[in-house]
Design brief:
CATH architecture of chain A: Orthogonal Bundle
Strand order of the largest sheet of chain A: 1-2
Order of helices and strands of chain A: HHHHEEHHHHHHHHHH
Helix content of chain A: over 70%
Largest interface: A-B, 50 and 51 residues
Strand content of chain A: under 5%
Structural class of chain A: mainly alpha
Number of domains of chain A: 1
Number of strands of chain A: 2
Oligomer: homodimer
Radius of gyration of chain A: 18 Å
Shape of chain A: globular
Chain lengths: 297, 297
């Protein structure tokens, strides 16, 4: 196991523990709602967004992980909520998520809708209540970033576009825009929240972190489309080939597999270049970028 | 028209304008999502939660309505989101809301889910971005209150309980608890947000405002159950008798109509008493309480 694999494993375990602590116990009423929220938030996932919070925090000089936990939990809670709602019958109608039945199948549709709703609220609660060691102005800035990333100019808007993207032949520009909203906005927000935990961060470095996350977010989605072609269902924890079945426009359908690979590497290079320009070449950020382009799930 | 009717009309128009300004324009992509959000947030409603923000703010000494607008918009956006999701086929499966087809009928189910999701995010965005005239600590406190009111110990938890309440015979204590979560928490939050906009508010007065809203929130729900029996569909903007059709436990089914009326007046009295104890007998708060128990829609 490489040092970076050990590093990610350590932080994946940390975020799992922190999430378990901020989610309400299953025994509390309404039990089934709390069960559904824990079912869909705990027990795995790459925790890419949480890793971004930690890595960007570290790169910008944050030495205490305690300062980064709330942000890491908040973005993972938002991500978990978005997956629950995306999987609903009225949306992508998916059966399998992280190797388990989706929330609306394990529970019921109403519970899945409410679990997503409540996870969104919990993300804002955690980000505002568990950041008391930071200045109030920064906590507000983080909250504003998170709210914007979740709205119609972010994740919710991207999902709306994605739902209709199978119906039209998107251009590359439109596809990039769709993914920038659907997944990029929260990824940029994760990096920004991590960076904002640092003291005396220059606007140039904050911008570089944002730019790194911007390109890495796009790379992440290109890789996702490639894995839908050459990954396997067991490793992915979700059915492969689903994009093809749904006749969705993807980076592979537009560029072919090899073209997508070239595009992936271009975005990777741009992510790294953004950091180099401000001398922010931190090993964790380098390794996280490599992880994005080399992952198999 | 009484002075208070003129007062409510003035603030209903004000909140309508403020909401229209903070919702994204319909022409912006994804157009249908922004249309759905405006469709379900604009054009009516009693605006009880917004009125609470203004009235509690005024009672506590806030003289500039500009300070109260963001909070009023935030609670109305949350309320609008909750109505969209409550009306979904997997939830209450309602066809009519505020005299119009529900969001999932006017648009589609996926759009309705996303419109609700995005309205929740927008509420947090508005509350954090449009309160810059207030101290950062207060803005955070308001955001924390809103997040808690929306979560499983508030609105989402209450809706989960409500969905199963037809399946069991609730006791009066259980029914009060359900409504405290489902509608009470946001009503208390509205009053608290209004009060928090004031300078130098004593903890006793803040507690009195909370207590006023607590009892008024319960009175509001008792009245709702009574209107479901003796109101009419056209005035209500939603079908009457729906509780009976759904065999839901209500204050009327538990206490009979006359018993519900007695309970309503008790809660009204307690709301007023809470204010009297700290000499916060402001005419707007008195009139708002009277409005709650006398309304016909």
């Amino acid at each position: 196991m490489t040092d970076f694999q050990q590093f990610t494993q350590f932080y994946q375990q940390r975020i799992e523990q922190k999430l378990a602590a901020c989610l309400v116990e299953e025994a509390e009423s309404p039990e089934w709602l709390h069960q559904a929220m824990r079912y869909s938030s705990l027990g795995g996932g790459k925790r890419f967004r949480a890793l971004l919070v930690y890595c960007c925090g570290h790169a910008c000089g944050v030495s205490e992980d305690d300062l980064l936990d709330a942000g890491a939990c908040a973005v993972e809670l938002i991500h978990a909520y978005s997956l629950i709602h995306d999987d609903l019958p009225a949306m992508d109608n998916s059966d399998l998520r992280r190797g388990k039945p989706t929330c609306h199948l394990a529970f019921d549709e109403a519970t899945a809708i409410l679990a997503g709703d409540a996870l969104q609220a919990l993300a804002f609660e955690v980000l505002t209540t568990q950041t008391a060691a930071l200045p109030a102005e920064k906590r507000l800035t983080m909250t504003i970033e998170l709210a914007k990333a979740c709205g119609t100019r972010g994740m919710a808007g991207g999902q709306a576009l994605d739902l209709r993207s199978g119906q039209v032949n998107l251009t590359l520009t439109e596809l990039i825009h769709l993914h920038h909203l659907k997944t990029g906005a929260l990824i940029e927000c994760s990096a920004t929240i991590g960076a904002l935990c640092a003291n005396n961060l220059s606007p140039e470095k904050l911008q570089a972190i944002y730019s790194y996350a911007h390109h890495l977010g796009l790379a992440f989605q290109i890789k996702d489309d490639m894995l839908d072609v050459d990954g396997d269902t067991a490793t992915l924890g979700k059915p492969k080939g689903i994009d093809d079945i749904n006749q969705k426009t993807t980076f592979v359908s537009l560029l072919n597999y090899q073209g997508a690979q070239t595009f992936l590497l271009q975005e990777y290079e741009q992510a790294i270049t953004a950091l180099q320009k401000v001398n922010l070449v931190h090993p964790q950020l380098m390794n996280l970028a490599k992880f994005v382009i080399n992952r198999n799930s």
